[in-house]
Amino acid sequence: MKKYRFILALTCLALTGCQKAAVMNIAEDSASYDLLDLNEQKVMLSDLQGKKVYIKFWATWCPICLGGLEDVQALASEDHDFEVVTIVTPNANGEKDTDAFIDWFQGLGMDQLPVLLDENGNLAEALNVRGFPTSAFFDAGGNLIKVQPGHLDNDAITSFIDSIE
Questions:
Q1: Rounded to 5 degrees, what angle do the CA atoms 104, 128, 12 make?
Q2: Do the beta carbons of residue 136 and residue 118 sit within 8 Å?
Q3: Residue 95 is inside which H or E element, if any?
Q4: How far is residue 113 from each of residues 7, 23, 63, 87, measured CA to CA in Å?
Q5: DSSP structure string for 113-156
Q6: Rounded to an integer, what distance in angstroms lies between the CA atom of residue 46 and that of residue 66?
Q7: Minimal CA–CA distance to 126: which of 11, 34, 4?
Q8: CA-CA distance, 69 to 31, in Å (whole number)?
Q9: pLDDT of 50-90, one tens digit each?
Q10: What is the model's pTM?
Q11: What is residue 29's predicted lDDT score, i.e. its pLDDT?
Q12: CA–CA separation, 118 vs 106, rounded Å?
């Protein structure tokens, strides 16, 4: 019976994105998450408040993630009423360590793709990120609206962001 519940739960996550969103506000909870940019400088999530935010969690070993990076970079470089950020968690779930990731990423030439490092995995844990890619959507007030596992194309991302009040 446990096996069937597990399979049902996985199917639910994969097909419907029914992952429950945590209660979070970027401004109020920002200090709880140590995020670094690729220059290893601290970044506060509260800096993003005031605009809607799309965050993509990804990993270097995830072929679906890598296949979608150019699309996310294109989305980030376009003029929108929302911010695009990607987050990698070094040393977790088979990911490279910080230095190895930075060296690897700089070799890609994706200079328009904003990448932050969740070195302790605190943000990924708070948002219940269990697989890659996973998307998180925030409203302009900094409130978490939805966490969606799986790949989303730019049209789906933009459409969902546009539906957020």
A1: 105
A2: no
A3: none
A4: 35, 27, 17, 10
A5: S-EEEETT-HHHHHTT--SSSEEEEE-TTSBEEEEEES---HHH
A6: 27
A7: 34
A8: 28
A9: 999 999 999 999 999 999 999 999 999 999 999 999 999 99
A10: 0.83
A11: 61
A12: 18
3-state secondary structure of 71: helix
Best CA proximity match to 42, nearest among 118, 95, 108: 118
* 107, two tokens: 């070799």
Measure the CA–CA gap between 79 and 91, rounded to whole angstroms.
Answer: 33
Residue for token digits 């029914």?
18
Closest by CA to 87, choosing from 62, 110, 119, is 119
Q: Which residues of 105-116 are buried (b: 16+ CB within 10 A; e: fewer)?
A: beeeebeebbbb
Contact 93, 65 (CB under 8 A): no
